[in-house]
Design brief:
This protein is an alpha/beta fold. It has 13 helices and ten strands. The protein folds into two domains: about 200 residues, Rossmann fold (3-Layer(aba) Sandwich); about 90 residues, Rossmann fold, CATH 3.40.50.1100.
């Protein structure tokens, strides 16, 4: 059976190349069937658990991971329950329901939704789909780098948005298996959802008091242990941008590439649009446009006007 994700375009971006003075390629994960990169790892994990005998999937999510589980469950014929926090957009909840999944709203942030989802694991036939902290997810996400390598592009830097760190872990895994251990990863968060940056500053994982960013898809109060460990081992630069910069990057990206993305994706795009110093020495840069389904044009306008 083919994978549940699709191979995505690696586009040359004239706008981002002009902004950085480098050759910038954008990996368009926004065109995945569930709207974000999440289906790569989630799809791989769901298929693995189904082959192991799981007859029910339970997930917790700020939106995109839950939608990926719902999509995978529908394709595999496995019923799905997704617990989301109150911060999840109505659009994201509607999209999850459209995939025939049950949606439960619980808690102010993903951490509370996660605890509630775990309480629903009351039989041996249920599989829990963590949104970022599972080696099966990292293996699935690593296929992004496999595709970049197959396209003949050798990056000098990879720019990613970071929430809990699943994408980051997958990118590092992919770089390592292609012998690109020295290629730095620029890991970007928004102010108010900057748990990796806080961990790097403190030299150990720490929990944020609350998620205050509009980029709720980055809303893990604490990054996974593997994310923190890899950020110490692999060349990594942790950056934080404002919500306003992330939202403005989404608006510019829509104009430049006709792709509507969430502020979580805009965090990585913002660093490129700013021509950040972290990219100065890189001749070829890959920015992963991680996508996001919980955004509409009206919502993007409202964020932009409010910020």
């Amino acid at each position: 059976m083919p994978p549940l994700h699709v191979r995505t375009p690696l586009l040359e971006s004239h706008a981002l190349s002009d902004a950085t003075g480098s050759d910038v390629r954008v990996k368009l994960e926004s065109v995945q069937p569930s709207g974000s990169f999440k289906i790569r790892g989630i799809g791989h994990a769901c298929r693995t658990y189904a082959e192991q005998g799981a007859t029910r999937f339970v997930a917790s999510s700020g939106g995109n991971a839950g939608l990926a589980v719902a999509y995978a469950g529908r394709k595999l014929g496995v019923p799905v329950t997704v617990v989301v926090p109150k911060s999840t957009t109505e659009r994201a909840k509607a999209l999850i329901r459209d995939e025939s999944a049950r949606v439960i709203v619980h808690g102010a942030s993903w951490n509370e939704a996660h605890a509630q989802a775990l309480s629903l694991m009351d039989d041996d036939e249920a599989a829990y789909l963590h949104p970022f902290d599972d080696p099966l997810l990292w293996e699935g996400h690593a296929t992004i780098i496999d595709e970049i390598a197959a396209d003949g592009v050798a990056p000098d830097a990879v720019v990613v948005s970071v929430g809990g760190g699943g994408l980051f872990c997958g990118v590092v895994r992919g770089l390592r298996r292609h012998g690109w251990d020295d290629v730095p990863v620029v890991a970007v968060e928004t102010t108010g959802a900057d748990s990796l940056h806080a961990a790097v500053a403190s030299e150990h994982p720490v929990a944020l008091d609350a998620i205050t960013s509009v980029a709720t898809s980055l809303g893990a109060k604490q990054v996974g242990d593997q994310t923190f460990r890899l950020a110490q081992e692999h060349p990594t630069q942790s950056l934080v941008v404002s919500d306003a910069a992330a939202v403005e990057a989404c608006a510019r990206f829509l104009d430049d590439h006709r792709q509507l993305t969430e502020p979580a994706c805009g965090a990585a795009l913002a660093v490129a649009y700013q021509g950040h110093d972290a990219l100065t020495d890189a001749q070829t840069i890959v920015v992963i446009a991680c996508g996001g389904a919980g955004v509409t044009l009206d919502r993007l306008r409202a964020w932009r006007d409010g910020l």
